[in-house]
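Last lecture ended with a question: if I hand you only a sequence, what can you say about the shape of the protein? Today we answer it with a concrete record. The protein is Transcriptional regulator, AraC family. Below, first the input exactly as provided, then the predicted structure, then a couple of comments.
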Amino acid sequence: MKIIPVLNIKQFEHRVPLTDFYSNDLSTHLHKNAAVVNKPHSHNFYLCVIFTKGKGTHEIDFNSYEVNTGSVFFLKPGQTHYWKFTNTPEGYIFFHTQDFYELHFSTSKLEQFPFYYSHKNTPHITVNKNVLTQLITNYRSINQEYYANLPYKKQKIASLLHTVYIDLARQYNKEAPTTETNSVAYIETLRALEQEIEIHFKTEKSAQFYADKLHITAKHLNRVCKTTLNKTTTELITERVILESKRLLVHSKNTMSSISENLGFKDYAYFSKVFKSKTKLTPLEFKKSYK
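The predicted structure:
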């Protein structure tokens, strides 16, 4: 079964002996990796990119965002994206594994930052000129440290990375609507639910299954989802299924029936009905709309 390309860090820079972190200035990165980065693809790592120049669009999981000076984007593993630029962009890009960050900050999780907390939070903000100037200093320091051969290299990069994420989180909370609740327990439950859905959505589509996995009642799980996202558990599961459907319909050459089967539907007609109820289009109509 043909699938969307999944890129890993080892593909990008062979001169630097780090397999869990990568950095580059954006124009160099895009030029060196044009064969892969300008086509729809996903990653098995976290990605953050900031633009000091450039215009265009960035499509992330079928949502389009404008690229302008001051644009910052955040991607979690598994998200599909690609770029379209109307002029040459400049800035910085880095990506890293979850372990790279969390091994250096054992009491912290990447999900503490609002841009990585939930798939429902926007993956994009735009910062003003003054903030951009401040942020670029640390992005540039990360890039310089990455290519330098100095003692405590990983520790220095991790420290700078942590600072960048704190600064970005502060800006994000000012500029972007976020999914949040006052209940820490609800936050942890939603995070655990999203992780379980990511693992099982192709085969398990009942709210009860996920409630059982989290050792809570289906009623309480639904309350958590309604409080934090104003959606039911079933809606979250279905949204993940529909997203994967879109990815496969547009970015693979698989047949409609094989996509349906891959997503756990024994009957294509039922899959088509579910898809249309959420998108207002049949799978074939949706596929044609992206040609």
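Comments.
1. The radius of gyration is 20 Å.
2. The domain at 184-289 is CATH 1.10.10.60 (Arc Repressor Mutant, subunit A).
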